[in-house]
Amino acid sequence: MVNSHRIDLSAAVESWPIAGRFVISRGAKTQARVVVVELSAGGARGRGECVPYARYGETPQSVLAAIEGLRAELAAGLDRQALQKALPAGAARNALDCAFWDLEAKRAGTRVHALAGLPAPRPLITAYTISIGSPEDMHAAARKAAGRALLKVKLGADGDPARIAAVRAAAPQAELIADANEGWTPDNLAGNLVACAQAGVTLVEQPLPASNDAALAAIARTIPVCADESAHDRASLAALAGKYDAVNIKLDKTGGLTEALAMAQEAKRLGFAIMCGCMVATSLSMAPAVLLAQDARVVDLDGPLLLARDREPGLRYEGSLVYPPDHTLWG
Predict the structure, then answer these.
(1) Which of 152, 154, 243, 253 is catalytic?
(2) Which of 46, 222, 253, 285 is most open to solvent, judged by the fewest CB atoms within 10 Å of its CB?
(3) Is 124:321 a contact under the CB 8 Å cutoff?
(4) Is 253 among the residues known to form the active site?
(5) Secondary structure of residue 94 in the 3-state scheme
(6) Helix 91-108 vs helix 60-68: angle between axes, to the nearest 10 degrees?
(7) Which of 52, 64, 60 is nearest to 11 (CA)?
C-alpha cells in the first residue's frame, strides 16, 4: 500500500497561455493558472493537476498552501482514503487525489482503470467551446469549428437568442449545448430556452445562479438543464432534484477522481444524466477525467485545445475525439 512508505511532496503553480482569449459571462482570461502536484514513494512518482477557481474562493496561492499544509501528514503515511477527510472538496484535494491514483498505479505496475475496477477506457467525442462574444464573432468562431461533432456555446448576457442563432447558422450539422454560467435571470429564462430550442440545443448548462435557481422547478424543461455551479459532490445532489435533469461533474469541484466516481454512481441512481466537464488546463488535468467520462451523456474535455500549447506528452486529440492517456502522462 502507498501508505506503507514515506511520501515526498512537490507542488508548484504553472501558467499556460490560452490561444486568444477564453470568455464566459463572468469575464475573460488569457492564461490558465494550474497547480501541479507530484507524489513520490518507493521509486515511483504520481502526478496531478488542478485549476483554482475564484468562483469558489480559490486562488493559486491558497490552493498551494492547502496542499503544502499536508506535507507532514503525507510524510507520515497519509493515503488517498484519509485524504478525503483531510481536505474539503475542491481544487487542492483534486490535485493530490489524482496524484495518489497515478502513484498507486505506477507502484502496482498497472493502470488506474484496473485499480478502480473499471473497463479499459475508449476514445470519446468531446465538446469544443465557443466563447461568448458578439453574434458576428461567435458566428465566425463556430464556422471555423463547424466540422466538429459537438460545440459548447458560452452564453449568459443580453442578446443570447441572437448569439445561439448565429452559431447554429454557422454550424448547421453540429450538436449544440449551451452554457450560461449563471448569467440568466428568472425573467429571461423562458425566452432564452425557447431560443435554444429553436436552434436545436440539446442541453442547457447552469442557466441561473446557484443561489437563485428555484425557478427551474416551476417550468416545463423542454430542453434538459444541467447543474454545474450548483453541483459539487455527492452532498449537493439532493438539492438538485426537481430543478435539474443532469449534473456536470468536474474533478476540481468534487476534489478528485475518488469522489467524482462515487458522485457519478449516486447521480445515476437518482436519475440524473451525467456530463463530464473541465476547466481550461493541460492534458494532465483532463487525463483522469477521461475515465470518469466513459459513461457520460456529454463529454466536455477540450481544455488543452484552448491553450496555445499543451504539456508533453499530452492527450491525443483527433478531430472531435479525445483518446485515453498514455501511462507516461498519467494513470
Answers:
(1) 154
(2) 222
(3) yes
(4) no
(5) helix
(6) 50
(7) 64
Please indicate whether residue 85 is annotated as part of the active site. Answer: no
Question: Which pairing describes strands 44-50 and 246-249: parallel, antiparallel, or unpaired?
Answer: unpaired
In the block, which residue shows the cell 458522485? 263
SS (H, E, C) 13-56: EEEEEEEEEEEECCEEEEEEEEEEEEEEECCEEEEEEECCCHHH
CB 258 within 8 A of CB 91: no
Structural domains of the chain, ranges and CATH numbers in brackets? 2-114 (3.30.390.10), 124-322 (3.20.20.120)
Q: Rounded to whole angstroms, how far apart are CA atoms 276 and 278? A: 7
The structure's pTM equals: 0.94
Cα radius of gyration (the chain) = 19
Question: Of 106, 152, 243, 250, which one is the catalytic site residue?
Answer: 250
CA distance 250 to 144: 27
Cell representation of residue 316: 491525443
3-state secondary structure of 165: helix
